[in-house]
């Protein structure tokens, strides 16, 4: 039997256990709940799938903020990083809005992703980029570049995105946060767009894609001036998160007559029991 450790006994778990513990084995009840605006998202053990409506209805009572409850049905994958979710209770109107660190985010969690666990990185981004030329190669709804725009005031942020839904919310978020004067959203494939936009003049590139970032290292480097910074997100084995990606980056940089100097490696969050999500800060110098 799976042991429930202290770490797993969240307030949400306690709430569900109190409400449903006599109907559903407590050890199978969900522990994690993410709340984005009025939408709550949870993960269900397949063994209690038959109780999904009951758990959803009960979750509506957990907070007065919650009006829709979604269940994640699979991991976020695919070129558009579209979430796999199912409405299990409440309103089917899942388009919502919330504020984090004075940044307004509009989104529909049925259509686009938002990683609550990347909060510390969004906060860090809000302190970087003042007066800079920034390229956000995988902008999504503006997760990482909106905090930068609102707080640090770069000269310009070129934000590239190819998922039509994410691009729609990116545009809406740029307007809502009153940063249209310093944002240039571009719809399309970053592989073609980023080098044309950056033209070796960028001060900073954000590469917020995990699983496949290595396919875009060359384009990231092409964006940057000598001395420019890259923030590369990826996942990697816990015992040795970044070695493979770094060695790939060094090789590609050399072929472009550049030198990739590692400034820092940060863990963002646990991705799964064996992998971490990390971010590398790299300075691209000339050789
Ligand atoms: C992981 S999501 C954004 C995550 C966000 N930056 C964060 O860290 O929370 C990555 C985004 O990149 C977009 N994307 C992936 N490949 C792309 C490409 N070749 N061109 C443009 N956008 C791309 C996806 O549609 C998705 O919205």
Task: Classify the helix fraction into a percent range.
Answer: 25-40%
Low-confidence stretches: none
The name of the CATH topology of the largest domain is Rossmann fold
Rounded radius of gyration (Å): 20 Å
Question: How many domains comprise the coordinates?
Answer: 2
Q: Which molecules are bound besides the chains?
A: S-adenosylmethionine
Corresponding CATH architecture of the largest domain: 3-Layer(aba) Sandwich
Q: What's the count of strands?
A: 13
Query: What coarse outline follows from CA principal-axis ratios?
Result: globular
Total number of helices: 8
Oligomer: single chain
The CATH superfamily of the largest domain turns out to be Vaccinia Virus protein VP39
Mean of residue pLDDT values:
95
Q: Give the helix/strand class.
A: alpha/beta
Q: Spatial order of the strands in the main sheet?
A: 9-8-7-10-11-13-12
Instruction: Report how far the terminal alpha carbons are from each other.
Output: 57 Å
Question: How would you describe the overall organization of this protein?
Answer:
This protein is of the alpha/beta class and 287 residues long. It has 2 domains: 6-94, 2-Layer Sandwich (GMP Synthetase, Chain A, domain 3); 99-286, 3-Layer(aba) Sandwich (Rossmann fold). It is 26% helix and 34% strand. It contains 8 helices and 13 strands. It has helices at residues 11-20, 52-60, 119-125, 145-152, 164-176, 190-198, 217-223, 243-255; strands spanning 33-36, 39-43, 68-77, 82-90, 96-100, 103-107, 133-136, 156-161, 183-187, 202-207, 224-237, 258-270, 275-286. Strand 5 (96-100) and strand 6 (103-107) form a beta hairpin. S-adenosylmethionine is lined by residues 79-81, 113, 115, 118, 138, 140, 143-144, 160-163, 166, 189-191, 208-209, 233.
């Amino acid at each position: 039997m799976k042991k429930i450790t202290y770490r797993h006994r969240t307030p949400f778990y306690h709430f569900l256990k109190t409400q449903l513990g006599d109907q559903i084995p407590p050890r199978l009840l969900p522990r994690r709940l993410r709340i984005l605006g009025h939408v709550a998202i949870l993960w269900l053990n397949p063994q209690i799938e038959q109780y999904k409506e009951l758990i959803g209805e009960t979750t509506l009572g957990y907070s007065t903020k919650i009006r829709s409850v979604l269940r994640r049905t699979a991991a976020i994958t695919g070129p558009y990083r579209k979430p796999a979710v199912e409405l299990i209770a409440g309103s089917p109107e899942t388009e919502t809005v919330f504020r984090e660190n004075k940044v307004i985010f509009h989104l529909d969690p049925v259509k686009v992703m938002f990683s609550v666990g990347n909060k510390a990185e969004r906060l860090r981004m809000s302190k970087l980029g003042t007066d800079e030329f920034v390229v956000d190669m995988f902008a999504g709804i503006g997760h990482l570049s909106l905090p930068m725009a609102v707080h640090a005031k770069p000269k310009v942020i070129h934000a590239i995105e190819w998922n039509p839904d994410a691009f729609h919310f990116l545009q809406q978020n740029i307007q809502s946060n009153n940063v249209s004067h310093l944002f240039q959203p571009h719809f399309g494939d970053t592989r073609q767009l980023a080098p044309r936009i950056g033209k070796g003049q960028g001060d900073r590139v954000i590469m917020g894609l995990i699983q496949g970032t290595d396919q875009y290292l060359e384009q990231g480097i092409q964006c940057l001036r000598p001395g420019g910074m890259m923030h590369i997100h990826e996942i990697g084995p816990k015992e040795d998160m970044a070695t493979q990606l770094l060695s790939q980056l060094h090789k590609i940089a050399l072929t472009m007559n550049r030198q990739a100097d590692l400034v820092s490696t940060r863990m963002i969050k646990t991705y799964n029991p064996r992998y971490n999500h990390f971010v590398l800060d790299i300075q691209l110098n000339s050789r």
